[in-house]
């Protein structure tokens, strides 16, 4: 489905580490997970309950243990940075991966802006406060979606800035098609949908923070 390996285990919450362990799609017993992460089986049971509350789909593989329906690799900033083309990597400032956030957009807007000509990227394994059209909540279950934001700074508003959401939508669609995805379309102005219109697959939210007479 997506992605690479996790951050160092000693820096990650137990839920994030267990999620990474399950990412291979194979069955893992509670006993094996407890031994791998140096915790009790009770702690693993509580962690699995927490992961399900975040929307992770799991299967009970008795007597083998826990298993995901599909393999999914955990996000890891260094692996993502290494996979970027040289031209994109040269423009990248910070690239961070969070375990769970209300909104990647909000988190980036609260930071200092990146240097001119560079961009910051923030990804989250789970997003609890995503925003959809007309104030609706955007659901992003753990292991079933990809949530990220990109921050850019303009010295002054460029002409045609209002067309930016549409430009981003076209760019995302073309990137997915180059990666081999088929049967996709862009619904005006910035929703990714199945070509037959039966399902919405992604959304783009563009927000602006401006200073009077400044960037």
Distance between the termini: 38 Å
Mean pLDDT: 86
Number of helices, where a helix is a run of at least 4 consecutive DSSP H or I residues: 7
* Uncertain spans: 1-10
Oligomer: single chain
H-E order = HHHEEHHEHEEEEHEEE
Percent range for helical residues? 25-40%
Compute the gyration radius: what is it? 19 Å
* Beta strands, count: 10
Q: In a few lines, what is going on in this structure?
A:
The protein is of the alpha+beta class. Helices cover 30% and strands 22% of the residues.
Care to describe what's here?
The chain has 215 residues and is of the alpha+beta class. It contains 7 helices and 10 strands. The strands form 4 sheets. It has a 3-stranded mixed β-sheet with strand order 3-4-7. Strands 8-9-10 form a 3-stranded antiparallel β-sheet, covered by helices on one side. A two-stranded antiparallel sheet has the order 1-2. Residues 1-10 have low confidence and may be disordered.
Topology:
Elements: H1 14-22, H2 30-37, H3 41-53, E1 59-61, E2 65-67, H4 77-83, H5 86-91, E3 92-101, H6 104-109, E4 119-127, E5 130-131, E6 137-138, E7 147-152, H7 164-178, E8 184-187, E9 191-194, E10 200-203
Parallel strand pairs: 3-4
Antiparallel strand pairs: 1-2, 4-7, 5-6, 8-9, 9-10
């Amino acid at each position: 489905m997506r992605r690479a390996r996790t951050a160092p285990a000693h820096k990650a919450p137990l839920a994030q580490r267990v999620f990474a362990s399950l990412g291979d799609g194979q069955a893992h017993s509670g006993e094996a997970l407890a031994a791998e992460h140096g915790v009790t089986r009770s702690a693993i049971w509580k962690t699995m309950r927490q992961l399900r509350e975040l929307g992770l789909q799991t299967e009970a593989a008795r007597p083998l243990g826990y298993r995901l329906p599909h393999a999914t690799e955990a996000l890891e900033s260094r692996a993502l940075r290494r996979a970027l083309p040289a031209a994109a990597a040269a423009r990248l400032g910070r690239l961070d991966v969070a375990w769970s956030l209300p909104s990647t957009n909000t988190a980036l807007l609260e930071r200092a802006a990146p240097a001119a000509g560079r961009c910051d990227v923030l990804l989250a394994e789970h997003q609890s406060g995503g925003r959809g059209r007309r104030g609706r909540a955007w659901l992003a279950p753990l292991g079933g979606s990809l949530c990220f934001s990109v921050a850019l700074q303009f010295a002054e508003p460029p002409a045609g800035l209002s067309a930016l959401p549409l430009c981003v939508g076209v760019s995302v669609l073309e990137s997915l098609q180059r990666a081999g995805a088929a049967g996709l379309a862009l619904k005006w102005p910035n929703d990714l949908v199945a070509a037959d219109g039966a399902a919405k697959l992604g959304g783009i939210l563009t927000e602006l923070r401006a200073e009077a007479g400044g960037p």
